[in-house]
Design brief:
The structure holds two protein chains of two kinds.
Chain A (H helix, E strand, L loop, with lengths): L1 H5 L10 H23 L5 E5 L4 H10 L5 E5 L2 H10 L4 E4 L5 H4 L2 E16 L6 E2 L1 H9 L16 E5 L4 H11 L10 E3 L2 H10 L3 E6 L7 E3 L1 E2 L6 H5 L6 E9 L4 H11 L1 H9 L9
Chain B lengths: L1 H38 L1 H6 L3 E2 L4 E2 L2 H32 L2 H16 L2 H18 L10 H25 L3 H9 L4 H30 L2 H7 L16 H8 L6 H34 L2 H5 L1 H11 L4 H7 L1
Antiparallel strand pairs in B: 1-2
Helix pairs in contact in B: 1-11, 3-6, 3-8, 3-10, 4-6, 5-6, 5-9, 6-8, 6-9, 6-13, 7-8, 8-11, 8-13, 10-11
Classes of the chains: A alpha/beta, B mainly alpha.
Chain lengths: ~280, ~325
């Protein structure tokens, strides 16, 4: 990456104008072609909204053989708007709706996304309250002794800005009042984060529920361990619902797709992709 | 007729390479400038808070991070590299050279992710578990050490060329005056080769500033101005690579703006390298430049050619 910048000499400025405009024109044409291709007319079901749900919705769309399903992203707010406008059959939201947003919409929870807080396998701290967790991530509590552990400092690890997991953590744990401390280590991969926690006895981190494995230890939050059961019945707090929104009850092709998503097959896809299913099967 | 056709085709190929650079430049600036203008260029460069989700785009911690790990890499890499270059160019018997020189060039061929992985597996736990060091291990120190190893081939390769380009007559003159080999190296050869060495160091700096993967893996990437070498830091390149995955809107533009800052730093380094070359023309007398080797070193001092490519030139 750096090489590209470093090697761009000033003399590129003397390239003939026509050439630049020619190549630019090519790019513009190419972009236009791409846009046209992705509009995909003739879809039976169109989903739009949350970027967090998008990859899972695509997995469902791929596995669904009852018709053509198109998935567009744009964020939960855009998804709610799309459901209201009817520009999509389903709006996708990974957050709870405000009262004003919810009117006229039918909400269906299609899966739940749980976040597990993890520590080193040898860490004696097995449970934290959400308030303690917030204090640790805000940089207020800096020693494990303050939360019942050994007298060693806490290495806080977080995901990068823009990551859906981080957004959820920020929303559910930190709230609007606190932000994650600057000293926190940052990594862009949940697998990498798990590895960092697995190797550092002083570390704490968070990953999506599906990333839990034997090398790290999940922490009980407010006395509840993250399991599929506690996520499904909402006793585990660190979770968000994945919502499909429709204007009125879904009918026809939409109804068939929703049935598929909630079917054992659809839910096992969700589980395989790391979500907690909403129905027992 | 055929000649002209081939000429045209070659010209087109040459232009396409240059236009690629032009396009990249245009693209970076087109994407990055809006947020730079909106947020204010000064606020962007001197702001210490980076929170794209709240509309805060201060990259000073990243600039500081890049500067700290680069200086750290040079503090470790320069003495090592220079010592290695002097040994190989002036002292080592030919048989040792034949083995060592390609080995060092091989160092440049190792993918950076491998350096990063070794750093993560070996260096980071070492720093964390050493009582005198401590901290999380992911730190400016870890990044500096990894980068020092990565810039060694650049510094050594160009320094060797610069030292070899010093005319024999300089050394003979020094010996004739009764100087020892050490005195000759320190008093005559190195000063004469200075500008080439400096050019090598600047190119090494460029490599260190631009390196991304290895740094992300060991630096910890905290957005803070480091207060010690054991602090985790985030470099400019790491900032782009870490957050590009989910960035959209102003956040994505801010990452391109980070690219603009990198671009300007790299241009600055290249400009300095050019100036070093100009100064050489003045201080080192004309006869020196007539030697083929010196002309080659001068060429190397000007053009940012990385160590793996040097092999082909020799």
């Amino acid at each position: 990456m750096g090489d590209i910048y470093r090697r761009s000499p000033m003399r590129t400025l003397t390239v003939p104008r026509q050439l630049v405009s020619f190549v630019t024109a090519c790019l513009v044409l190419a972009t236009g072609a791409c846009t046209r291709a992705s509009t995909r007319e003739g879809s039976d079901v169109v989903l739009a909204g949350s970027t967090s749900i998008q990859p899972f919705a695509e997995s469902w769309a791929e596995a669904y053989d009852g018709g053509r399903v198109t998935v567009q992203s744009g964020g939960s707010t855009a998804g709610i708007k799309a459901a209201h406008d009817g520009t999509a059959n389903f709006g996708m939201s990974s957050r709870q709706l405000h009262e004003s947003e919810a009117t006229g919409l039918v909400q269906t929870v299609v899966a739940r996304d749980g976040i597990a807080v993890i520590v080193h396998a040898a860490n004696p701290v097995h449970a934290l309250t959400v308030a303690q967790l917030r204090a640790i991530y805000a940089g207020v509590v800096r020693n494990w002794r303050e939360v019942g552990g050994n007298d060693v400092s806490i290495t806080v690890i977080t995901r990068e800005e823009g990551s859906g997991t981080r957004d959820t953590f920020q929303e559910l744990v930190m709230g609007s009042g606190a932000s994650i401390a600057r000293e926190a280590l940052v990594t862009a991969y949940s697998g990498g984060l798990r590895k960092m926690v697995a190797e550092d006895p002083q570390a704490i981190g968070y990953v999506t529920f599906s990333q839990l494995n034997a090398y790290v230890q999940a922490v009980a939050l407010d006395g509840v361990m993250p399991t599929e059961q506690t996520i499904r019945d909402a006793t585990y707090r660190l979770q968000r619902p994945f919502l499909f929104l429709t204007r009125g009850a879904p009918t026809g092709a939409s109804e068939r797709f929703l049935k598929f998503v909630l079917s054992p097959r659809g839910q096992s896809i969700a589980r395989a992709e790391g979500l907690a299913p909403v129905t027992v099967f | 007729m055929r000649d002209r056709l081939i000429e045209r085709i070659l010209l087109l190929a040459a232009i396409s390479a240059v236009s690629m650079l032009a396009l990249i430049t245009i693209f970076i600036f087109r994407e990055g400038l809006p947020v730079l203008v909106d947020y204010g260029p000064l606020a962007f460069i001197t702001g210490t808070t980076w929170a794209p989700s709240q509309g805060e785009f201060g990259v000073l911690p990243m600039i500081a991070g890049s500067v700290v790990v680069t200086i750290g890499a040079l503090m470790i890499g320069l003495p090592l590299g220079l010592a290695c270059a002097v040994t190989l160019a002036e002292m080592a018997p030919p048989r040792v050279r034949i083995v060592l020189k390609p080995t060092i060039e091989l160092l440049a061929g190792i993918p950076s992710v491998v350096y990063g992985f070794i750093g993560m597996e070996v260096l980071v736990p070492f720093i964390r578990n050493t009582p005198m060091l401590g901290g999380p291990g992911y730190s400016a120190l870890a990044a500096s050490i990894i980068l020092a190893i990565m810039v060694l081939p650049t510094i050594i390769g160009i320094s060797i060329d610069a030292i070899e380009a010093v005319p024999r007559s300089y050394r003979e003159g020094s010996y004739a005056l009764g100087a020892t080999q050490w005195q000759t190296i320190v008093g005559v050869v190195l000063p004469a080769a200075r500008s080439g060495v400096v050019a090598g160091v600047i190119l090494g700096m460029g490599r260190a500033v631009g390196e991304t993967m290895a740094v992300i893996m060991v630096a910890g990437n905290s957005v803070q101005i480091p207060h010690s070498v054991l602090s985790p830091v985030r470099t400019l390149t790491a900032n782009i690579a870490l957050e590009m995955g989910y960035a959209s809107g102003a956040h994505a533009q801010a990452l391109f703006a980070t690219g603009i800052v990198l671009f300007v730093i790299s241009l600055g380094l290249n400009a300095i390298a050019g100036r070093v070359r100009d100064r050489k023309r003045v201080t080192v007398a004309a006869p020196v430049a007539t030697s083929g080797a010196e002309a080659r070193a001068e060429l190397l001092g000007v053009e940012p050619i990385r160590a793996p490519e040097l092999g082909g030139l020799r």
